[in-house]
Amino acid sequence: MFLPTFVNKTYLAVLLLLLLYFIGMDLLLYFRVQNYDIRPRANNTQALPYRSPILCDLNPICTVTVKAMMLDHPNHYILSPLASLVDYLLGISRSWTWLTPNAISVSHVIIAIIGARCITRSSLFSRQVGVVLFQVRAWMDDLDGHVARTRLNIKGEKSDVGSIGFFVDGICDALGCIALIVALFVFLRRNANDCANYERPVRAPLLPSLPHSAVASNSYRKSPLYNMLIVSLHFSLISIAWNRYISLYQDLLEIDNKNIPPIDREDFYDRQTVVYRSSAFWAVTLAWKMFNFHAMMDYMLLAIFLPGNLRCRIQEYVRLTWWQIPAILSVLTFISELHYVNAYAYVKILTIN
Asked: Is residue 162 domain-resident?
């Protein structure tokens, strides 16, 4: 009895420490953004020189980008710096010329398949090993992007939209997600016992009054196929929306505009910086940081890793996905679209005129 209690308290302590770490890093990132210029000014200096205590490649807040601000907390503050550290120590970008970013992307699909196989088992330890393998997959996903950007001399987290690597990485991410969904489907099929706390049983006197179609519909909604279709739909929608706003904001705030006169170009850069530092943009990016595709994967993996009835957790997740999470996604998309339209009108007014 003592051991499970101790383990649960250990898990809770680790989660609290991670939460405090993420909050602290978010605060550091916020203050970093407030003193960050997207482009060097005429004297080639920033508003306030930033002295990183460690190498800039290893510091997740040294180079600020749109994608970094919208990246989920584990990837931004843990896995991405670890990928940079391994590359720095092993010299993958410089010396391992035979290892391409696309090869790394393909290899993490294999890791995801192995992790999915572990998750299908009923043993908690096997499922935890599977979750760890999926985190290795996510780390390799960060590594392929870091290697690609280093070889192209690109600083910070950025999506090279339209490139072959962008599509290969997206396909491999999708395959990894499919592997997780298939694993959960197999797990639900193998563990078909109903979750006692999921729904209260209907009293016996009321059973005859329920139509057969309603009972059949309720049974269908709790089927593994239905559950995984809902999760797949949710992952797809949130991935499309997240990538859309990364692309839009990158084009608005991080692309140099050569079509305006040099005199007005400084004003154009200043307007980009104003939007970058605004509280509204910070709120939008922080919301996407917590509710993007990778964050949803993290929440699902956390539910798999922790002790307890996994079937119950999956069913609760599906209930959230069916109504509450789509509501959040709809509101977040509306607010992001409204903010982007206003930011576009403010930044692009020079080029329009």
From this structure: yes
pLDDT in tens, 80-122: 999 999 999 998 888 888 888 889 988 999 999 999 999 998 8
DSSP of 61-109, one letter per residue?
A: TTS--HHHHHS-HHIIIIIHHHHHHHHHHHTHHHH-TTS-HHHHHHHHH
Give domain status of residue 210, yes or no.
no
Query: Buried b vs exposed e over 136-166: b needs ≥16 C-beta within 10 Å?
Result: bbbbbbbbbbbbbbbeeeeebbbbeeeeebb
Whether residue 45 lies inside any domain: the answer is: no
DSSP code at position 344: H
How many domains is the chain built from?
1
Domain that holds residue 345: 11-37+64-191+224-349
146 Cα distance to chain centroid: 16
Cα gap 240→72, rounded to integer Å: 15
Whole-prediction pTM: 0.84
What does the CA dihedral 277, 156, 252, 262 come to, rounded to 10 degrees? 90
Helices 310-319 and 164-190: angle between axes, nearest 10 degrees? 120
Per-residue pLDDT tens over the stretch 43-58: 555 555 677 788 888 8
Instruction: Supply 323's token pair.
Output: 């109504």
Q: How far apart are CA 183 and CA 121, in angstroms?
A: 9
What number of residues does the chain have?
Answer: 353
Please indicate, yes or no, if residue 201 is contained in any of the structural domains: no
